[in-house]
Amino acid sequence: MRKQIVAGNWKMNKDFVDSEILVAKLLSQHKHAQTQVIIAPPFTNLLAATNALKGSSIDVAAQNMHFAKQGAYTGEISADMLSSVGVKTVILGHSERRAYFNETDELLAQKVNAALENKMRVIFCFGEELSDRKSGQQNDVVAAQIQKALFHLSPDAWSNIILAYEPVWAIGTGETASPEQAQDMHAFIRQTIANQYNAQLANSISILYGGSVKSSNAKDIFSKPDVDGGLIGGASLDAEHFYAIVNSF
Ligand code: PEP
After folding, report:
1. Does residue 248's CB lie within 6 angstroms of at least one atom of ligand 1?
2. Is residue 143 scored above 80 in pLDDT?
3. Percent of residues, the chain, with pLDDT higher than 70
4. How far apart are CA 226 and CA 206, in angstroms?
5. pLDDT at 94
6. Which of 97, 110, 201, 211 is most buried per CB count within 10 Å?
7. Are 69 and 38 in contact (CB under 8 A)?
């Protein structure tokens, strides 16, 4: 059985104090949660979050990392550094990193390798632009993103990969893919992985949907058979709203 997962990407929000407050509120909401919950605070709040969540089943993820082990990369953070503060999961390939920091699929393949070598779990994000969908290219674009960044991996490595399909036109826009659009794409992604590897592996991968998920639409999206949860941006910044989504299965 693949895992149901809801992950919150805080992006560049919450200073140290606000982060502590939000983590405490999340913990108080978490008691009855059945779903695997992951939060991704900014780098400056990771240590405090892992300390506060020790002993709970909420996992902490970083929003990015560099592929090198160490060295002259001013402003960057390595997998070792993340591990040293108790972070075992990293989000890679978010559309904002691709758009504003020129992250390519080739660079992302290096980051994925570095994370896996350090025994970290990767939430790998990808998704088409509005122009791709308007021209009917969405499947080709998504297949190419996955193929370039992930298809060099051995079958075993996939046990540490979580996929997050995030159509760029739905991120932070209030525009959501319909449950049917999400299901169609998730089924296509699973079939693409089955073609490259095998059906058993494809069926074991959690594929999250991301893009303006809220408590009002999460249930319909999560009810689809190939949607295994969500990557949540804006709505992850409020504990009650986030847990309404977590409890939407
Ligand atoms: C995201 O940033 O991954 C995201 C899905 O954002 P939002 O939920 O705000 O659209």
Report:
1. no
2. yes
3. 99
4. 8
5. 98
6. 211
7. no
| Structure tokens given for 133 | 């969908």
Q: Are 208 and 237 in contact (CB under 8 A)?
A: no
Q: Is 166 among the catalytic positions?
A: yes
DSSP 167-219: -GGGSSSS----HHHHHHHHHHHHHHHHHHS-HHHHHHS-EEEESS--HHHHH
| CB-CB contact of 223 with 200 (8 Å) | no
- The answer to whether residues 115 and 92 touch, using CB atoms and an 8 Å cutoff, is yes
Close Cβ partners of 242 (under 8 Å, ≥ 6 residues apart): 6, 8, 26, 29, 232, 235, 236
Q: Is the pLDDT of residue 34 over 90?
A: no
- Show the CA angle centred on residue 6, arms to residues 53 and 26, nearest 5°: 35
Separation between Cα atoms, residue 120 and residue 90, nearest integer Å: 7
Q: pLDDT of 60-106, one tens digit each? A: 999 999 999 999 999 999 999 999 999 999 999 999 999 999 999 99
Token pair of 83 as six digits: 């591990």
Instruction: Kindly report the average pLDDT of the chain as a whole number.
Output: 96
Question: Do residues 37 and 61 make contact, with C-beta atoms less than 8 angstroms apart?
Answer: no
Which tokens in the block code for residue 168? 């760029």
Instruction: Give 161 Cα–ligand 1 centroid separation in angstroms.
Output: 19
Q: 137: Cβ–Cβ under 8 A, 6 or more apart, which residues? A: 128
Q: Is residue 175 annotated as part of the catalytic site, yes or no?
A: no
Protein residue with least CA distance to atom 3, ligand 1: 233
Rg (CA), the chain: 17
